[in-house]
Amino acid sequence: MVFDVIIIGAGAAGLFAATVAAERGKKVLLLEKNAKIGVKILMSGGTRCNITQNTDSAGIAEGFRSNGKFLRSALARLTPSDVVQWVESEGVDTKIELTGKIFPVSDRAVDVRNAILDRLKRSPDVLIRNKAGVTNVECVEGNFRVSTPEKQWSAKKLILASGGKSYPGCGTTGDGYQWAIDLGHTLVPTAPALTPLVSPEQWVKDLSGLSIDPCLVGVFEKSDLPRISAKNFSKLAITSSRSSLLFTHFGCSGPAAMNVSREFAYRPQGNLTLVVDFLPDENLDSLRNWLLLMENQAKVAQSALAGKVPSRLLHLLVQRAGIAQDQRLAEIKRLSLQKLLGLLKGCPVAIEGVRGYKKAEVTAGGVNLKEVNSQSMESKICSGLYFAGEILDLDGPIGGFNFQSAFSTGYLAGLSI
Ligand SMILES: Cc1cc2nc3c(=O)[nH]c(=O)nc-3n(C[C@H](O)[C@H](O)[C@H](O)COP(=O)(O)OP(=O)(O)OC[C@H]3O[C@@H](n4cnc5c(N)ncnc54)[C@H](O)[C@@H]3O)c2cc1C
After folding, report:
1. What is the pTM (predicted TM-score) of this model?
2. Which atom of ligand 1 is nearest to the CA of 109?
3. In the chain, where are the structural domains located?
4. Are residues 72 and 406 in contact, defined by beta-carbon separation less than 8 angstroms?
5. What's the 10 CA to ligand 1 centre distance in angstroms?
């Protein structure tokens, strides 16, 4: 039997592509390596599934930097509110958290996965094969031949939705990249993204378990360090993120660190540094004046600043500024006070690498977007071949951006075949 379309990968992108194609009356074969369908949906958002972000299509596209423009057509076809409607129409209510992240009210990712899968299963002409790891893909006389250990399958069209290579334990081992290359495509080099950062600094490890929310973190060229000030922080930063930062026994984690990790992954040679503004809502000059006003009071720096940042962090920064813990503000040298303020508003943190694909929520890089028609997701090189989801050179920040990209590109591919 020749299917209208074979879709490889039953993740966010493949499931949406299969549903749309099947609802349009196409004969669909969905092949998934795992026993479970939608494994990453099930484990996402700490098993709560952050479905999308409370923004419009332009807001999602912006999260993908310059590659966001590739997503415009897909996001116009399936907007963030369409995704919310999709799951809500299957009986899964959603909620918006303060960060703009949208979750199911139940906080159960399995409800989201079931909602998506139930709708797909209602379509008449769809065959879902789990435990069907694809081993080979070829295009023979205009038809696609896809091999699994069980048998060989044929279809007129093929959608590669096999994801990236992060969290390989979930089945995402980058298999699709080689098939894309075999079918004539090139790849933008891949790197782990949304992954924790590894730091050699002992003081960072000493703060393990401490979370600061919010922080502004920036990635800078080391050579720019002497020039960084509160005023030019955003201008000089290669990239920055305002969110929570978590110190760990190996370095830095939490959304702020993970959002900027792709820069360190792409440039592991060590000429980048992380700089943290622990008080992003405080202006440096007003903070300095406020402290100077208190000089007359017999306060020690720690108690003057208590409440602004957690005491464990303050204790450490006071020490690093060369200030004794019991030293009164009036006794502290201007230079030391200046140093303390500098550390609060722009603390350099040496980074020696990232945790890698094993702990990366997404893969940066992938199938070159220049070779894919953004209006249809069809390959510009191999007719009848389509791409959807993370296999493409698309990686966004934490907050539901990556699922939205996968849902929208999957939807558009399913609509276009
Ligand atoms: C721990 C974690 C938490 C995350 N949380 C969130 C979140 O809350 N919100 C968010 O927006 N994003 C989140 N992400 C990112 C998000 O999961 C991915 O961006 C998204 O799943 C990509 O969808 P996809 O369909 O392109 O790929 P995937 O979901 O990775 O699906 C690809 C599928 O293809 C299958 N496959 C691979 N090779 C083969 C083969 N040879 N044969 C057959 N099948 C194959 C894989 O088994 C997999 O099921 C998280 C990621 C991780 C790792």
Report:
1. 0.96
2. 8
3. 2-190+363-416, 197-354
4. no
5. 9
Q: d(Cα 416, Cα 201) in Å, to the nearest integer?
A: 51
The token pair at 36 is 């479970």
Cα 361 to averaged position of ligand 1 atoms, centre (Å):
9
The architecture CATH gives domain 2-190+363-416 = 3-Layer(bba) Sandwich (3.50)
The dihedrals phi and psi of 276, each to the nearest 5 degrees, come to -115, 130
Ligand 1 pocket at CB < 6 A: 8-14, 31-34, 39-40, 43-45, 49-50, 133-134, 161-163, 166-167, 171-172, 175, 361-362, 389-390, 400-403, 406
**pLDDT per residue of the chain (417 residues) written in tens, 0 to 9:** 899 999 999 999 999 999 999 999 999 999 999 999 999 999 999 999 999 999 999 999 999 999 999 999 999 999 999 999 999 999 999 999 999 999 999 999 999 999 999 999 999 899 999 999 999 999 999 999 999 999 999 999 999 999 999 999 999 999 999 999 999 999 999 999 999 999 999 999 999 999 999 999 999 999 999 999 878 998 999 999 999 999 999 999 999 999 999 999 999 877 999 999 999 999 888 888 877 777 565 667 777 777 889 999 999 998 999 888 887 777 788 888 889 999 999 999 999 999 999 999 999 999 999 999 999 999 999 999 999 999 999 999 999 999 999 999 999 999 999
